């Protein structure tokens, strides 16, 4: 996936230079009658958007173009510079951290679904079967690493220091009875690490892409109850009232999309509306 990410990003950058894109270039922010261009992770985000495009958009008079990205940085940067009109791939803690670090002003429009984060292993069937000194791979980005550690804490594998938030790292572990070692990897690489580590905490979208079934295969899985990590449609601040964005927000939270998510993902992705 790393090569794919570089290719997508390079092509986008090259296209921007070749066309001399301005802030509203590859997107169509300046043309409210043009197609709404949305950046999305391939699974499940782009799949959900393509369902809307193929089955619902025409009736609402919405032209929709879906651009797939396999990394967690390009969609926000492209939304900020106008290369795309919107994105659909992230949760609020991730966006808050991104805006703070990158100086962007991306805002959520409507919450659509939750992909429960899970712990997976090719070597054990239960989290408490992890051996002393076992290596666990976790996402390297700030928010998802903290989220992974919270998942391990919820399963009784480790205990974090009191009061740690969305910037927790292995240094914030207060109790590690098994003496686990942590390997930080880019989120997209985690499924491929399963043969090299004892277990890995994998984001839902990458788990599904790797043919893992979170509801069935995870040996620890986040609860959907009061979960702050639901994914949403997002735009650059000021574009929330774009009529096309409003139409897409309405369709993404329609009964048809809720049924599509339920039928297609069988509990591995949960509608949040």
TrEMBL record:
The keyword Membrane applies. Belongs to the nlpA lipoprotein family. Keywords: Lipoprotein, Membrane, Palmitate, Signal. Residues 1-25 form the signal peptide. Its main location: membrane. It is found in: Membrane. It comes from the Bacteria. It is a lipid-anchor. This is Lipoprotein. Pfam families: Lipoprotein_9 (PF03180). InterPro entries: Lipoprotein_NlpA.
């Amino acid at each position: 996936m790393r090569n794919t990410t570089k290719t997508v990003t390079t092509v986008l950058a090259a296209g921007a230079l070749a066309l001399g894109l301005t802030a509203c270039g590859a997107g169509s922010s300046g043309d409210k009658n043009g197609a709404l261009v949305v950046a999305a992770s391939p699974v499940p985000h782009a799949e959900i958007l393509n369902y809307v495009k193929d089955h619902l958009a025409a009736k609402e008079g919405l032209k929709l173009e879906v651009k797939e990205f396999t990394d967690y940085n390009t969609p926000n940067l492209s939304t900020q510079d106008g290369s795309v009109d919107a994105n659909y791939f992230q949760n609020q803690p991730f966006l808050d951290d991104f805006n703070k670090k990158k100086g962007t002003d991306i805002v959520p429009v409507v919450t659509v679904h939750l992909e429960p984060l899970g712990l997976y292993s090719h070597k054990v069937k239960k989290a408490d079967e992890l051996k002393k000194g076992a290596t666990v791979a976790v996402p390297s980005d700030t928010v998802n690493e903290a989220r992974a550690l919270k998942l391990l804490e919820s399963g009784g594998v480790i205990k974090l220091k009191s009061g740690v938030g969305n910037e927790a790292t292995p240094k914030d572990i207060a109790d590690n009875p098994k003496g686990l070692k942590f390997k930080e990897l880019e989120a997209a690489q985690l499924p491929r690490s399963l043969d090299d580590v004892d277990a890995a905490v994998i984001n839902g979208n990458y788990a599904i892409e790797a043919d893992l079934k979170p509801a069935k295969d995870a040996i620890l899985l986040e609860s959907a109850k009061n979960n702050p990590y639901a994914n949403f449609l997002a735009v650059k601040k000021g574009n929330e009232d774009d009529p096309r964005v409003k139409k897409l927000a309405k369709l993404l939270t329609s009964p048809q999309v809720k049924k599509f998510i339920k039928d297609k993902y069988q509990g591995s992705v949960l509608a949040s509306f």
